[in-house]
Amino acid sequence: GAGLLLWMAAHLFMTAFDRRQYDVTLEDLRVSAGTEPGRTVPDSLLSGEPIGVLEIARIGLSGVVVEGDDEGVLDRAIGHLPDTPLPWQGGNSAIAAHRDALFRPPRNVRSGDFVRPKTPYGDFDYRVRETLIVAPEDLWVLDATPTTMLTMISCYPFDYIGPAPERFIVRAERIS
To answer: Cα separation of 1 and 59, whole Å?
Structure first.
């Protein structure tokens, strides 16, 4: 029991430490994006690079979004799936996080909730359109969409112990 508590405390400490580092990097990017004339918006990022902060105020979610979907990223941040558009691009941008870490609050998200990714290249407002529960092989949720969407993915059920058999999906559409 003591070992488990120590492991959890170390994990929480490392997540908080990483969050502070990502926040500093994002603020530096935001300042330089606003002060460097002609600065281009990147089309892609390297794995581990911070993208921004995702906020859903009604449920109290605020987490750093980082490029990549490997365990190293998902252990400490919300990961952007590299094969999908970045939040400042059009299309269906997908992000994922572990249900027992950063994506436990989305279990309380409702249709109509506001989702805001804040990036160095702009803040974007989305409204939750639907939540779904799908099988892990239902990859159609990542397909291109005619409107600009944000798809959030987490394992389901939230209280399941071990590898979860399903995925919880939140789909939000960008609003002007």
So the answer is: 31
Angle at alpha carbon of residue 82, lines to 125 and 126, rounded to 5°: 10
Question: What pTM does this model have?
Answer: 0.82
Give the burial class of 155: count Cβ atoms within 10 A of its Cβ; 0-12 exposed, 13-18 middle, 19 or more buried: buried
- 136, 118 contact by CB (below 8 A): no
Q: Could you tell me if 151 and 171 are in contact, meaning their C-beta atoms sit under 8 angstroms apart?
A: yes
Report which DSSP code applies to 21: H
Q: Output the six-digit token pair for 155.
A: 């394992």
- Amino acid letter, 16: A
72: enclosing H helix or E strand: helix 71-74
Task: Identify which of 40, 106, 44 has the alpha carbon closest to the alpha carbon of residue 81.
Answer: 44
> What distance in Å separates the CA atoms of residue 175 and residue 6, rounded to the nearest whole number?
43
Mean pLDDT by 10 residues, the chain (176 residues): 73 68 67 62 88 93 93 89 94 93 87 95 94 96 96 93 93 94
Let me know: does 90 contact 148? Beta carbons within 8 Å: yes
